[in-house]
Amino acid sequence: MKKFLTAALLVLAVSVSIVAGSLALYTTRIDDLAEGSLIAKEFVLVENGGDSFKTDVKIAPGEQVQWQFGVRNYQGTVVSETAMDLAFTVNVGATEDKAPIEPLVVTVTNENGDTMGVPVTGTGVISFEDTFPLSADGQEHVYTVTVVWPSSDRDINFAGSGFGNTITVKVTGTQA
User: Fold this and answer.
1) DSSP at 99
2) By CB neighbour count within 10 A (0-12 exposed, 13-18 middle, 19+ buried), where does 71 fall?
3) Is residue 118 pLDDT above 80, yes or no?
4) For domain 46-175, is the CATH number 2.60.40?
5) In whole angstroms, what separates CA 73 from the centre of its chain?
6) In angstroms, what CA-CA distances link 135 with 1, 45, 73, 82, 140?
7) pTM for this prediction
8) Could you give the CA distance from residue 146 to residue 168 in angstroms, rounded to a whole number?
9) Spatial CA neighbour of 109 closest among 163, 148, 145, 72
10) Are 72 and 46 in contact (CB under 8 A)?
11) What is the pLDDT of residue 30?
């Protein structure tokens, strides 16, 4: 009987070992195998520190007035991190409660002297586009608005405080 009991215990031990080994579950865990994050690129479009536009500037036939405005793609040390397409709209209209000075010719030029858009006589819109290519360095563009009143025999028809034009500039920057 001792032999039987020893043999039975031996068979039981071998059986438990075989079953335990075949039913064993092996698990391996690798924590934080990879990690990433995203932050938004800087997108900066601001005026270049001021413009030279004035209000109620008087002009007469044969005279010219020039104003400058500009935009830049940086502010302090922060530079726009994308290329940018710029769309400009220069609106030349009659001043509120006044008739427009129809002979006025308005043009916009860039810093190289190139005419931007199509010049306007009297009232209208000058539209043009420009770009800021991708660059680690800050960039700026300066434009000059030139208003000329060419002298003619019709000048007296636009004399006095009942006539005036207002010029406004808008710009939109879009990621290229």
Assistant:
1) B
2) buried
3) yes
4) yes
5) 8
6) 93, 14, 10, 8, 12
7) 0.79
8) 13
9) 145
10) yes
11) 84
